[in-house]
Write a structure and sequence with these properties.
The chain is an alpha+beta fold. It has helices spanning 27-39, 73-83, 136-143, 194-207, 212-217; strands at residues 2-10, 45-48, 57-67, 88-95, 106-116, 128-129, 148-151, 166-177, 180-187, 236-243. Strands 1, 2, 3, 4, 5, 6, 7, 8, 9 and 10 form a ten-stranded mixed sheet that branches.
């Protein structure tokens, strides 16, 4: 049995998350179906680096696939892609040793959140449009309280009974990009809906509805985080899964660039006009020659 490392990108809008569920369409379920058709096998394992929620996207999800097949990795990738819907794509497939594990070997993950500062006709499935102006300085100040090893029990909606709620957040970057505000959260791992709740709190600070000190106090609030502070799934992307030796500190770039609409102003010219030719010397006048016989003066 061969083990393959798969790198996957997907738009999560139409799916109930990554993990296979009964009576729900999921990303893992679509890949599972395609693998069955391509290999003719049912005795295989497809294991992701982590779960993404319903409506959440991925630029760089990683999974490992254990399957009996004689197909080379690239042929396997191409044939699976031929059977996948257009919003799921295997970017790469490569054979790896059986000791590689997509989840257990991951050393860090980064998520990207896209906030739109204006209404858009094109990017709605991939942004959260916030109508109010955002104070990015206040948001960055508030973000500092969440960096480091913190207990994020109040930032998850799912009760955690056995697993620890301590998470190492290595950094939070907030950067404007045209009509977008990009938020990157990088850390060891993340609890269910934790990143969306972090972004929701930071946006509330940016709106002025919460102070940076108040945001920090939510870490120890006994009642947990109000549900209305959870950012929508539409703007969230699993940006990268890191393994030992992978480069870190990658440039922060938007997934979708908002169109720029230059509007004509008072000095704008709608139509180009040709400049009149510069005056030159007058053409020399010529005297008429003698008339020939038979010519008539006109």
């Amino acid at each position: 049995m061969a083990r393959f490392r798969l790198t996957i990108e997907y738009a999560g809008t139409r799916y109930s998350g990554w993990q296979i569920q009964q009576n729900a369409r999921t990303v893992q379920g679509e890949i599972d179906r395609a693998v069955r058709e391509v290999t003719g096998r049912t005795d295989f394992e497809l294991y992701g680096s982590g779960r993404t929620d319903a409506g959440v996207h991925a630029l760089f999800q990683v999974a490992h696939l254990d399957v009996f097949t004689r197909l080379p990795a690239e042929s396997l990738r191409r044939q699976i892609n031929d059977l996948l819907p257009p919003d799921i794509n295997l970017v790469a497939a490569e054979p790896v040793p059986h000791r590689f594990h997509a989840r257990h070997d991951a050393v860090a993950r980064s998520y990207l959140y896209q906030i739109a500062t204006r209404r858009t006709a094109f990017a709605k499935p991939f942004v959260w449009w916030v109508k109010e102006p955002l104070d990015l300085t206040a948001m960055r100040e508030a973000a500092g309280a969440f960096v480091g090893m913190r207990d994020f029990q109040g930032f998850t909606e799912r009760p955690v009974t056995h697993a620890s709620t301590l998470v190492l957040v290595e950094g939070i970057t907030i950067q404007p990009d045209g009509d977008l505000v990009l938020v990157r959260v990088e850390g060891s791992h993340f609890l269910w809906r934790m990143v969306r709740r972090l972004v929701g709190v930071l946006v509330e600070v940016g709106r002025g509805g919460l102070t940076p000190e108040g945001a920090a106090g939510l870490l120890t609030a006994p009642a947990g985080l109000p549900a209305q502070l959870t950012a929508p799934a539409s703007g969230l992307f699993l940006e990268r899964v890191f393994y030992a030796g992978d480069a870190r500190g990658l440039p922060l770039r938007p997934v979708f660039t908002m169109p720029v609409h230059p509007l004509p102003g008072p000095t704008a010219s709608v139509r180009a006009t040709a400049e009149p030719p510069a005056p030159g010397p007058a053409p020399a006048r010529t005297r008429p020659g003698p008339r020939r016989s038979g010519q008539r003066r006109r």
